[in-house]
Amino acid sequence: DRRDWSYSPLFSSVLSYSVFATGVRHVSGIEIYTPSEIEAVNGTDVKLKCTFSSTQPVTLTTAVVSWSFRGINSKVFYYQESGHPPLEGRFKDHVVWSGDVLKKDASITLQKVQPTFNGTYICQVRNRPDVHGISGEITLKVVDKVSMSEIGMLAAAVGGACAVVLVLLAIVVAVRFHRRKKMEKDIELHHPKPGVL
């Protein structure tokens, strides 16, 4: 009595599990890329950069971008075929679209930032039917002056050290040159040239 195991529920379950376990299953998803943290001087404009990749072709009708602000659950910006800035709230008249979904860019620009803009901004992108993926997050710090980055501080320290070394080297060369001239002058005074009275 031979049974066709290909139609067995148990066989199907085992086969499904083995396919899942070996990682053969393909899952579509949006990949979003943002800087983790940026600084902006109070009263200036700052671009919140958000780019993405999708397993599906990106068109103006399929791509939807949504920016929100963590904490007060405030909508910052919405894009579907065109930009829709907020009509009320703290971000009214302070947000403009800076992206291009056809180039997979979902960036916005905050204009004349204020201390109340401090916080985390969330970038979400959907490109039907590719609607799954992790959101991008940017923490904005509004400061009075832009602080020097670690790389900037290191460059300043190295540049300062090089300048000090060059100054010391110039001093050593000048001193040696002066001593040599003085020695030559002393030799001429103590040993006059023949025929000179």
From TrEMBL:
<dbReference type="InterPro" id="IPR003599">
    <property type="entry name" value="Ig_sub"/>
</dbReference>
<feature type="domain" description="Ig-like">
    <location>
        <begin position="9"/>
        <end position="139"/>
    </location>
</feature>
<comment type="similarity">
    <text>Belongs to the myelin P0 protein family.</text>
</comment>
<protein>
    <recommendedName>
        <fullName>Ig-like domain-containing protein</fullName>
    </recommendedName>
</protein>
<feature type="transmembrane region" description="Helical">
    <location>
        <begin position="151"/>
        <end position="175"/>
    </location>
</feature>
<dbReference type="InterPro" id="IPR007110">
    <property type="entry name" value="Ig-like_dom"/>
</dbReference>
<keyword id="KW-0812">Transmembrane</keyword>
<dbReference type="InterPro" id="IPR013783">
    <property type="entry name" value="Ig-like_fold"/>
</dbReference>
<dbReference type="Pfam" id="PF07686">
    <property type="entry name" value="V-set"/>
</dbReference>
<keyword id="KW-1015">Disulfide bond</keyword>
<dbReference type="InterPro" id="IPR036179">
    <property type="entry name" value="Ig-like_dom_sf"/>
</dbReference>
<keyword id="KW-0393">Immunoglobulin domain</keyword>
<keyword id="KW-1133">Transmembrane helix</keyword>
<dbReference type="GO" id="GO:0005886">
    <property type="term" value="C:plasma membrane"/>
</dbReference>
<dbReference type="InterPro" id="IPR000920">
    <property type="entry name" value="Myelin_P0-rel"/>
</dbReference>
<keyword id="KW-0732">Signal</keyword>
<dbReference type="InterPro" id="IPR013106">
    <property type="entry name" value="Ig_V-set"/>
</dbReference>
<keyword id="KW-0325">Glycoprotein</keyword>
<dbReference type="GO" id="GO:0098609">
    <property type="term" value="P:cell-cell adhesion"/>
</dbReference>
<keyword id="KW-0472">Membrane</keyword>
